[in-house]
Structure formats: C-alpha cells, structure tokens
Amino acid sequence: MSTECPLSPEVFTTKDFRSSLKPIWCPGCGDYGVVTAIYRALATIKRPPHEIAFISGIGCSSRIPGYTTAYGFNTVHGRALPIAQGIKMANPDLLVLVAGGDGDGFSIGGGHVPHAIRRNPDLTYIVMDNQIYGLTKGQLSPTSPRGKKTSSSVYGSMEDPVNPLLYVLAYGAGFVAQGVPADMEGLAKMIEEAIRYPGFAFVNVQSPCITYGDADTQLKTQRMRMRKLEAEGHDATNRLRAMELAQEYGRTLYTGVFYRNPNPPPTYESQIRERQQNLRGETMALEQLLSRKSTDDENLTAS
Length: 303
Ligand SMILES: Cc1ncc(C[n+]2csc(CCOP(=O)(O)OP(=O)(O)O)c2C)c(N)n1
Ligand code: SF4
Ligand SMILES: [Mg+2]
Description:
This protein is of the alpha/beta class. The chain folds into 2 domains: 9-263, Rossmann fold (3-Layer(aba) Sandwich), CATH 3.40.50; 266-303. It has 10 helices and 8 strands. It has helices at residues 31-45, 80-90, 102-108, 112-119, 164-170, 184-196, 219-225, 239-246, 268-279, 286-302, and strands at 52-56, 71-74, 95-101, 123-129, 175-179, 201-206, 227-228, 254-260. Helix 1 crosses helix 6 (184-196) and helix 5 (164-170) runs antiparallel to helix 8 (239-246). 44% of the residues are buried. The structure holds thiamine diphosphate, iron/sulfur cluster and magnesium ion.
C-alpha cells in the first residue's frame, strides 16, 4: 500500500490517532487508560491512520475504535475476530487491530479465538478484561471470579473463571502479554510490541470497571498488586514457564510479556500469497469458469 500521506511519518504524535468523538465511559473507567496507551503505541509505529483498521465487537470496551482516527468497525457481539480476519485477508497491507471485552472475547466469541490463533493472521487482539459485562449493567462474565455477586448472581457465582492467558497460550498464540492502565508506560510498550510481532498477538488488559467491578481490581490497588515479569527475570521465550506463570491469573497480577515466539511461523496471509503465486497460470479464467458452469448446468438438466 502507498504510504502517501500529508503527514510525514516522522511527525506522528498521539494526537494524530485521537478522534473528535469524546469517550462516554464512566469517569474512572480503565478503558480511558487503554485508549491512551493505544494512541502512544500507534505514534511509535508511525503508520498513518488510513493504513490502520480497528475492529471491535459490542460492549463498553468495544467503543474504542470510534475514539481513534483509524478506520473503525464496531461489529457484532463476539464476532470481531472473524471480521478482522476477513479484512486482513482482503487487504494484508492494512495494520489490523482488534479489541473488545472479556465477555465479547471469551464468552460469546470464545469459539473464534482458537481458530484465529491456529491460522496465525498478523492481528493484534486487545481484550479489556474487567471481569464483568459492563455495557449491559453488570452481569457475570466468563472471567468473573467464583463467588462474585452481581445482578445475575445475587448469591455469588458458582463457576470458576476462564483463564484468558492460559487459553491463548494453550492454542499456540505467538505473543501473549498482560497489562494494566495503572502502568501506562508498560501498557503502551507491550501494545507496541504486540503490533510489531509478525503474527497473532494477544494483550489482556486488566481494565477496571469502576461501576460494577470489585475494589481490589481498581487502579489504585493495581499499582500495589502488579508484579512486572521483566523485574522477576522471566524469559519470554520460555513457553512452558509462561504457562506456569499464566496459571496465577486471578491471584498474582503479573504484567509484561509472558511469551514471544522467537521463531514466528508464517502468517496466514503470507501463506495465501505464496499459494496464489504458486497457482498462478493454473487457475481458470472467469469466462472459462462461467462457461464450464453453464455446460455443467445443461448436462444436469438433460440427465
Ligand atoms: C448477540 C448478542 N447477545 C447479547 C448482547 C448483549 N450484550 C451487549 S454487550 C454484552 C456484554 C459486554 O461485556 P464485555 O464484552 O465484557 O464488555 P464490557 O462492556 O465489559 O467492556 C452483552 C451480553 C448483544 N449485543 N448481542
Ligand atoms: S460500566 Fe464499567 S466498563 Fe462500562 S464504561 Fe462504566 S466503568 Fe467502564
Ligand atoms: Mg467486560
């Protein structure tokens, strides 16, 4: 794709990615911090907004594409990943970001996650994990802790939560990280790294819901609870160790890169490109295909 843009790539700042829409999240919602981290990451990537497509599902968190100047598509609940994959296949040169909530990604959309991972398109998937259905006024989500009392579980949840980190690691995601808006610098850096990773990259953001979330998930508490993987000396190329650490989800608040595949496999779109090139010359022209179809139809009617 042409990078002809009135702005020189050298001068991109966070402002170039901030749209004129004013976010309507509750004051204090963690998603404000996530969108700020995304602006910062995009400013370092230096791709103009018209080369970026930002796809989301439905939820408070899924409003995020509208707050950026990238092309945006606020799609259907749980269907951001299939739509993003289609967009990436149609135009592999676009930088495609996907975002949504824990409900969007691991409840209604949970079935799409393994298939996106095994195809390995070059997408960055950011989940704002607030352990609640925020938009629909605070019901249990797939990541709500056991015992959580909500409008849909007045006596407390009787289910164990899904572990998003272990889930994506188990299916083979090449880049897996977790961040918190309380550590803006760390979050922006890991989103940048996720975008730069050539393949499916997943960032779980513990993004507090101030309205329906628990006190121990809020920004102030995050600052005290977070433990940076880098400071713990974690080797992000060690997948088994990453899986061990990921088991601490819901107990220890690890932040940073859990896993980065040191030998990224080919992306889905690069394999498609290769196959198209290999098959060039063997494929039938459209007129040939259509005339063959009408002959087949005539034979079928005659028989
Ligand atoms: C097919 C369908 N089912 C249910 C809904 C209702 N609905 C909208 S958002 C949502 C859950 C949102 O939770 P989450 O994805 O965690 O996002 P959050 O609002 O917490 O950011 C639900 C159940 C819907 N819009 N479409
Ligand atoms: S309900 Fe929760 S998730 Fe939704 S905007 Fe308000 S604080 Fe954020
Ligand atoms: Mg949620």
